[in-house]
Amino acid sequence: MTYQGVISRYREWLDVPDTLVPVTLLEGDTPLIPVPRLAEELGGGFELYVKFEGMNPTGSFKDRGMTVAISEALGRGVKAVMCASTGNTAASAAAYAARAGLRAMVLIPEGKVAAGKLAGAVAYGAEVLQIQGSFDDALSLVVELTGRYPIALVNSLNPYRLEGQKTAAFEICDTLGAAPDWLCLPVGNAGNISAYWMGFTQLDRRRGSGLPHILGVQAAGSAPLVLGHPVEHPETVATAIRIGKPARGEQALLAAEESGGRIIAVTDDQILGMQRRLAGNGIWVEPASAAGLAGLAHEIQAGRFQPQGKRIVAVCTGHGLKDPDIITRTFQPRVLPSDFHAIEEILSSLGGN
Q: What is the spatial distance between Cα 90 and Cα 127, in angstroms, rounded to a whole number?
């Protein structure tokens, strides 16, 4: 396989200017992983796949949109980019800006960003500014600042972000040969759910690939689209979706409605439980990434969803290394003497010679 990056692979499908100068880290081509054992745990009788976006260069789905946003910015001659972030956007913007030789500035909410994500932004050389406020406050400041200065805004308000992110829908259809029956994914700032729907509808118009129903899932403590109003102080362990006023909220609601799907909320306990179940199937994701599957499990258990005979894809948006503290802060390794027999006693249940 020749890795191309999403711009090169899908250029004819992207609504981008001719001035675009491709900046790529060979993002995309992420695996669509069958998880039959998890499907059986959820009742069985259906196909279940995980689109593991944590395998992108900076560990999250943000790279798909950032390659296009940064490429467009470089093409029109800007020298700096800026974003507000709960972590993943910051790391992605910093990496692609570094690749392009551009200055990157990120605004983060105080104490609300996982260490693994903040480390990425710092490592790639971004200027990280922490504000005493929420992500929504940070985004409002970024919008105002980029309106006054020659700086490119690279949050999902930037339409080129969605152009890149929709390529994940193309990849799913390329692999499966058609759209799945259902797509389940986390919803934070709501750009990704909007982008997937853009991609599926575009592909269906041109190739007749079909359209999935979409199940968007928010965390209960940060569920403005479920509640029907902004959340002033969103709280959830799923930091990537800790957003009280989604920038693409109306577009997300429309995508769910047009697809014949819905947007629901699940608890932090359900999210962390699904994160553990995914890890038990060999896929380690950050907490927010487990929200889509947690929502699917919730709907099945509540009797609101019958999966039998269906093909379902769950999008896992970020790698577990993005937020390892969730795991390590509760882990205490068992301490044993440096003695063969002490360890052998633990292995005795396995049998042996």
A: 10
Mean pLDDT of the chain: 94
Q: Are strands 311-316 and 182-186 parallel, antiparallel or unpaired?
A: parallel
Structure tokens given for 40: 């059986």
Taking only the tens place, the pLDDT of each residue in 209-240 is 999 999 999 999 999 999 999 999 999 999 88
Gap between the Cα atoms of 33 and 192, Å rounded: 19
Beta strands, E only, 145-206: 152-153, 182-186
- Other beta carbons within 10 Å of 195: 26
Between the CA of residue 272 and those of 111, 237, 278, 288, what are the distances in Å?
Answer: 20, 8, 10, 9
Dist. CA 143–CA 288, nearest whole Å: 25
- Look at residue 270 and give its three-state secondary structure: helix
Beta bridge partners of 318: 60
Distance CA 122, CA 120 (A): 5
Distance CA 236, CA 337 (A): 39
Instruction: Give percent of the chain above pLDDT 90.
Output: 82
Least confident window among 29-33, 93-97, 101-105, 330-334: 330-334
Domains of the chain, earliest start first:
6-59+161-328 (3.40.50.1100), 62-158 (3.40.50.1100)
Q: Is the pTM of this model over 0.90?
A: yes
7 three-class SS: helix
